[in-house]
Design goal:
Elements (H helix, E strand, L loop, with lengths): L2 H10 L8 E3 L4 E3 L20 H19 L2 E2 L8 E2 L2 H24 L4 H5 L5 H11 L8 H14 L5 H10 L2 H6 L20
Antiparallel strand pairs: 1-2, 3-4
Amino acid sequence: MDEYAFDQQMAAGSINPGAAQYSYETKKVFVPAALLQLPHFHRDFADFSGVGFILAHELGHAVYMSIYNSFEVGPGTGNPKLFVNGGKTSLENVADIIGLQIAFKAFMKNGDHKDFVSSNKFTKEQLFFISFAQDWCEAYASEEVERERLVRQMYVDYHAPSATRVMGTLANFEEFSKAFNCPVGSKYNPEKKCGFFDI
């Protein structure tokens, strides 16, 4: 982004001069000089909680945007292809991943679920993930109806499409990969994952 464009964005209010920001357009983190001074930063000690947190937070936007931007959505091989706007959906994507991790931890901590598991061919972990995914099941009258709905959703909704919410959330959660023995490098067990908690 050239200096003029940067000044224009700041004047328009799309860049806050007092806050660090990740630019989806330029794929760069903007850190104002004010954040490189006390109390946020001091040159005599490594400040991972001040400036370190700010940078990690802004880079977190980039990571989730790039992961979700790679998800193609829609039926068949439509023209043009539809891809999730990871920048637009990033806050909801992060909330989905955190929500699943917290819910799983609570599920595993509370109760042994023996009665339910003994009458089923799935483990309690597998049943948890099946229940999560089932909430997002959708059916359409035709591929045309599905495509129209997805195109409309991509313009107005800050949530990724349902199938992407399931795939993106589960693919970033190690416990899912373990529960279903997903091979490393597969769609549901990529080598690089973005998680928030050590479960």
